[in-house]
Write a structure and sequence with these properties.
Layout: H1 3-14, H2 18-50, H3 55-104, H4 107-112, H5 115-157, H6 159-206, H7 208-213, H8 217-269, H9 275-316, E1 337-345, E2 354-362, E3 366-370, H10 377-384, E4 392-397, E5 400-401, H11 407-411, E6 414-418, H12 428-433, H13 441-450, H14 454-459, H15 477-489, E7 495-499, H16 507-520, E8 525-529, E9 541-546, E10 549-554, H17 556-562, H18 565-573, E11 576-578, E12 585-587, H19 589-593, H20 603-612, E13 614-618, E14 623-625, E15 633-639, E16 642-645, E17 654-658, E18 663-664, E19 678-681, E20 685-691, H21 692-701, H22 703-722
């Protein structure tokens, strides 16, 4: 997008305010018209008033100029006020268009877009456009008027000199035009570089726990310095090109002034032109030169804004992935069922996240979706919420395809509780009311009571009017989830969607929240995604996913009897005993026997081994150990999720993830060697750990244990090498 493209876009906004625009043009005409008349008056004053000593005409002329000055001054003040209002309106419209468009874009856009890049469009890019509107557009319009108003009188005064000016001025504009395209491209590069830099800062600020934990400060600074060096080069290039765009016409105009002065002086010397005409022509041409310089002065602002406007236009041109079809109807409240009919889905048109999935959830059913990470269960909820549309097949409510109705009417009857429910920096009451803006205080209180946050609000002093802080920082994880539950309930949803709603909570809080969800879910259709099977065991139906396919469906007891995928998941997560407070855990002998390297031990040894495990609780985002640290213990995950990160990775690349029932670190039981990877908690975790020194006592009693463990270590090393 060049300068002309920028002007075209801005004028689409200016046209919305025709009244203000008309008044602005009239004010500009009065201002420029008086300036031109004042310069033309030099010829009349010198040749027709001063030379003949006509006092009466002198008084009339000066009086007329005085009145004109007053009118022009009033016009200038009015122009400034009108332009300020018009500029503010245009900027407000651009901001609103951008923000409104962001609300229409689908979840897919936000999963791919850099937050810093989006923010930069509202900051640096919009600031450049504001500069163009404030200094470039108005100044440019006035300069163009001034050039037109100056050229015509020049021909009336002395057509020969005017021809010289007319030939010379295009050279000034051509000089600028030759550089404008390159300067515009350089401006876009600068805006892109600024956006990348903002993204780096935004990402770094949000990732400080990881940066500190992994000692990434040096790498972060190096990355920032590298990006800043690229931006520096772009800024220097743009500064030079924009300066040349402004400077080249001024040099041409300066030389043209000298040529016109020389020719004019010769004509006066030869008595072929009066002194008054020369003076008037000179000051009028000087005015023309000033207007040209004013026009070139505005060009850098316009060039900067052109790059910014191009980035804004790219955002506005981003098409929502999910849109209501023409004539889309409204969805009535769910009455019969939710149906997936041979649904397939792919994010990128390649690998299918869901493949040929069909099921029916009758009204009033609590349905739990379980399966390994990446199996597609959360994608099912995204399709129900219509964050995405199926690639194949259909999702229907009461027989009506979700694509045939409006998104708003669909979501009005859905309440959502997510794993990390974001709260806004306002009061508890207003955070609950976010669920339904028209909710009365009584409705808010009822939802809060159902979510059991009444005692919490009372303890905070200001009750429901207590501020929760940024992202709910003044509340605990369980308290935030209760507010999120109330926010969902205030909608009186027919369909309650729970996406890992308790997985980030400690065991005690999780149990309390699950009890609340079970109570508030009565009489509603509930879709719950969870990796913790204990939370799904009481569901009316359990849908088991694996690699994007629905592999099993039924009640807990039925699925256990099948001895299929669900039974294996249940076996992995079972065999642990957790205290009511969630502060102590133990492992059953049968669970230890399921570990490959322990399966051949006798009952007595396994019982002794179970007694050696120690409970460890760790918060989220805690580094358990780093690659290279001494390995001294083996971990069983009772609750929570962790990730293994590749050693030496600047961006902390994940190579594996473990959750409830998984184990890691068995190599530490046998060999005194460094850890092969860094492991960090993703959620609050409860571990059972076994120290190597305690394990060695058992090894001396069971030599076969060493051989089993050696085989397990070899298998783990091969898996790690493949990753």
């Amino acid at each position: 997008m060049g300068v002309l493209g920028l002007v075209r876009v801005l004028f689409t906004y200016i046209r919305r305010y025709r009244g203000l625009s008309t008044l602005l043009v009239l004010a500009l005409l009065l201002d420029v018209g008086f300036d031109t008349a004042l310069r033309l008056s030099f010829k009349f004053l010198l040749d027709d008033v001063i030379a003949p000593h006509d006092r009466r005409l002198l008084a009339l002329t000066l009086g007329a100029l005085g009145v004109g000055a007053i009118v022009a001054s009033c016009a200038m003040v009015g122009r400034d006020y009108i332009y300020a209002r018009l500029s503010a309106n245009v900027l407000n419209d651009i901001r609103l268009d951008m923000f409104s468009h962001l609300q229409r874009l689908g979840i897919g856009f936000y999963t791919e877009a850099r937050a810093g890049d989006v923010i930069a469009r509202f900051s640096t890019d919009l600031a450049a456009i504001e500069g163009a509107i404030s200094y470039g557009l108005g100044g440019g319009a006035m300069a163009i008027m001034g050039i037109v108003f100056s050229l015509v009188p020049l021909f009336l005064l002395e057509w020969r000199l005017a021809l010289v000016a007319l030939v010379g001025l295009p050279l000034a504009l051509i000089a600028a035009r030759l550089l404008t395209g390159r300067a515009t491209a350089a401006s876009y590069e600068v805006k892109e570089g600024q956006a990348r830099l903002v993204s780096i800062v935004e990402e770094n600020v949000g990732a400080q726990p990881v940066v500190k934990a992994f000692g990434l400060e040096g790498g972060a600074i190096a990355r920032f310095r590298e990006e800043q060096a690229r931006l520096f080069g772009s800024m220097v290039r743009f500064g030079l090109l924009s300066g040349l765009v402004e400077r080249a016409p001024n040099v041409v105009v300066l030389l043209l002034n000298l040529v016109i002065l020389a020719i004019g002086a010769f004509l006066v010397f030869e008595a072929r032109m009066t002194v008054g005409t020369l003076v008037s022509f000179s000051v009028l041409f000087q005015s023309l030169s000033n207007w040209v310089q004013e026009l070139t002065f505005t060009v850098p602002y316009l060039l900067q804004a052109a790059g910014g406007m191009q980035r804004l236009q790219e955002l506005l041109d981003e098409a929502p992935a999910v849109q209501d079809v023409a004539g889309a109807g409204t969805f009535p409240r769910l009455e019969r069922d939710l149906v997936f009919d041979r649904v397939a889905f792919s994010y990128d048109g390649g690998r299918r996240i869901l493949d040929d999935v069909s099921f029916t959830i009758p009204k009033g059913t609590w349905a739990a979706f379980v399966g390994p990470s990446g199996s597609g269960k959360s994608t099912v909820l995204s399709l129900v919420l219509r964050f995405y549309d199926p690639t194949e097949g259909s999702v229907r409510i009461d027989g009506k395809d979700l694509r045939s109705g409006t998104q708003s009417s669909l979501r009005e009857q859905i309440g959502v509780v997510l794993q990390d429910s974001l709260l806004f920096n306002t009061t508890i009451r207003e955070n609950v009311r976010v669920g339904r803006r028209s909710a009365t205080d009584a409705a808010v209180d009822a939802a809060a009571k159902a979510a059991r946050i009444g005692d919490l609000a009372a303890a905070l002093g200001k009750g429901y009017d207590t501020p929760v802080g940024e992202h709910g920082s003044r509340l605990s994880g369980g308290q935030r989830q209760r507010v999120a539950i109330a926010r969902a309930l205030v909608r009186d949803p027919a369909l309650l969607v729970l996406d890992e709603a308790t997985s980030a909570l400690d065991a005690g809080t999780e149990s309390a929240i699950n009890a609340t969800l079970a109570e508030v879910g009565k009489g509603r259709t509930v879709l719950s995604v969870t990796h913790r099977l204990a939370s799904a065991a009481t569901a009316d139906t359990i849908l088991v996913f694996d690699n994007g396919r629905l592999v099993e469906q039924g009640r807990h007891a039925e699925l256990i009897e099948k001895r299929g995928a669900y039974a294996k998941l249940w076996e992995k997560q079972s065999g642990f005993v957790l205290s009511d407070a969630g502060d102590r855990a133990s492992v059953e002998v049968s669970r230890l026997r399921s570990l490959p390297f322990l399966k051949d031990l006798d009952e007595t040894l396994l019982t002794d081994l179970a007694s050696l495990f120690v409970t460890e609780r760790q918060p989220a985002d805690r580094v358990l150990f780093e690659a290279g640290d001494p390995a001294d213990r083996f971990y069983l995950i009772v609750r929570g999720a962790v990730e293994a990160l590749r050693p030496g990775s600047v961006n902390a690349e994940r190579i594996a993830m473990f959750s409830d029932g998984d184990h890691f670190g068995e190599i530490a039981l046998l060999r005194d060697m460094p850890r092969l990877a860094t492991v960090r908690t993703l959620t609050p975790c409860i571990f059972l750990t076994l120290l190597r020194e305690h394990f060695h006592v058992l090894v001396s009693r069971a030599p076969e244990l060493r051989a089993s463990l050696e085989r397990a270590i070899i298998e783990m090393a091969e898996t790690f090498a493949a990753a």
